[in-house]
Design goal:
By secondary structure, this protein is an alpha/beta fold. Helix content is 33%, strand content 20%. The protein has 14 helices and 19 strands.
């Protein structure tokens, strides 16, 4: 039996689960409705058999390259909820940057910064140091006022980045945090705030990345438990067929022939899906057009993903490897590679879940792209046999990495939500207003939506970004 809810949430990905957890903790009667029979959405963890990739049940595989930012929005919410008691929090190794046949981790101390990245001249390193000093000191307000709607290229110019520095930041940092790498379109403010998040993580853990034992889906399950132990509900295998709107106000949901009454509705999936869930006559045309425009801005990756019988290099890396375009011959993209740490216990002993991603679009010929990727990878990692060192593998499209890319045309207040032109209808997630990357961005968006729903701030952004 369904009852009247304070807030009905559509989607049990991380956005919906985080929002539901926060609301339940605040004492709201909340229910989360998810069409799939599992939680986590695009950041779920399942077996290869459950994903439909291979007849294997002895791996726990994240869909893609999911690792999370330490000491940022997601962890702020997890700590606020006390949800860490439900999973094992595992800090990961610092990510690597591949260059000239070597792997390089970001330096922390001043002397390390001078010694790091031997192909970069000292003069350029000093300019990078000046930029990092600026990132540490600049206030949130100044970032938003000066840089939010200016492209990366202008930021690089202001700090005198040479070609090597631009490559390091664009293909080594921006690619991982923003997916798209168009320096004329990427928001400079977004890069600065992501850098602040990176530095926050290093300050607390000496690494910007974490995951969970058993995969990131363990965190999704922890959030589900948090909702339920605070009196909320999570309904799986429940497909919302309509968001009910009457006289310009959201009134609830339809699930098949059932009607769910709710005082407020939070849509925690790509916002443009509202085009299929709200009757055309109830959807303001200007808002509908903005949704249609946003759908064109979704980012995509193509993955070779599987279980490796040995590490990619001579010893396990247990983290991301970023390969810049200058090292690539056959594909017009950077490579984002994630070799999962054995500490996460997601594979049989001695084996490694491995994800290799490149930029792609709907027109991509998957078979041809996979062949080109293997040709690149064999040259980059000669110790790994890309034909015989797989225990199993699959080639899949990650259809929506970011619901809407964070370009200057779609950044901060230019994004959707959290409030909409329809009264009591809110949107959150990686197509809505957010201030971080990936699931951490979803966490920020969930937080902003909850603040709009409950009518008070839970986080002071000036203090949050003060290092």
């Amino acid at each position: 039996m369904f009852r009247m809810y304070d807030v009905a949430i559509v989607g049990a990905g991380f956005t919906g689960l985080l929002a539901g957890s926060l609301l339940a903790k605040e004492g709201y009667r909340v229910a989360v409705f998810e069409r799939n029979n599992f939680v986590g959405g695009r950041a779920a963890t399942r077996t290869p058999k459950e994903w439909g990739w291979a007849e294997r049940e002895d791996y726990r595989v994240d869909f893609g390259h999911h690792v999370f930012a330490t000491n940022s929005y997601l962890e702020f919410i997890l700590d606020r909820l006390g949800a860490k008691r439900h999973f094992k929090f595992v800090p990961l190794n610092m990510p690597y940057f591949y260059k000239n046949g070597g792997l390089y981790q970001p330096p922390v101390g001043f002397l390390e910064q001078l010694r790091a990245y031997p192909w970069i001249p000292l003069r350029s390193k000093l300019r990078l140091r000046k930029f990092l000093s600026y990132v540490e000191k600049v206030s949130f307000g100044e970032v938003m006022e000066k840089w939010a709607y200016r492209p990366l290229e202008e930021l690089y110019d202001e700090f005198g980045f040479d070609e090597n520095a631009r490559e390091l930041f664009t293909d080594g940092f921006v690619a991982g945090y923003q997916t798209i790498i168009d320096t004329e379109r990427n928001s400079a403010g977004d890069l600065i705030l992501c850098m602040k998040a990176y530095l926050r993580g290093i300050k607390r853990y000496k690494t910007p990345l974490f995951s969970a034992e058993g995969g990131v889906g363990a965190i999704a399950e922890a959030l589900r438990k948090t909702i339920e132990e605070n009196g909320g509900e999570v309904h799986l295998g429940t497909n919302v067929t309509e968001i009910i709107v009457e006289n310009g106000e959201a009134k609830g949901l339809k699930i098949g022939k059932k009607t769910i009454e709710s005082r407020k509705v939070l849509f925690a999936a790509p916002a443009y899906y509202l085009l299929h869930l709200i009757k055309e006559e109830n959807l303001p045309e200007e808002f509908a057009e903005r949704l249609r425009e946003g759908e064109k801005e979704a980012t995509k990756l193509f993955l070779i993903i599987g279980g490796a019988k040995r590490p990619l290099t001579k010893k396990p890396v247990g983290t991301w490897i970023m390969v810049p375009r200058s090292e690539v011959k056959n594909v017009d993209s950077y490579y984002l590679i994630y070799e999962v740490s054995p500490e996460l216990k997601q594979a049989p002993e001695g084996n490694y879940p491995l994800s290799i991603a490149v930029l792609a679009d709907e027109k991509t010929n998957k078979k041809e792209l996979a062949k080109k990727m293997v040709a690149d990878l064999e040259a980059l990692f000669p110790n790994f046999d890309f034909e015989n060192d797989w225990d199993w593998k699959a080639e899949v499209m990650f259809p929506i990495v970011d619901g809407i890319g964070r370009t200057i045309d779609w950044y901060w207040e230019r994004r959707l939500g959290p409030e909409t032109p329809i009264k009591n209808l809110y949107v959150a997630g990686d197509s809505a207003q957010e201030l971080s990357s990936g699931v951490d961005g979803c966490a920020s968006s969930a937080l902003f939506a909850i603040e709009a729903i409950i009518g008070r701030k839970l986080l002071n952004l000036e203090e949050f970004y003060r290092l």
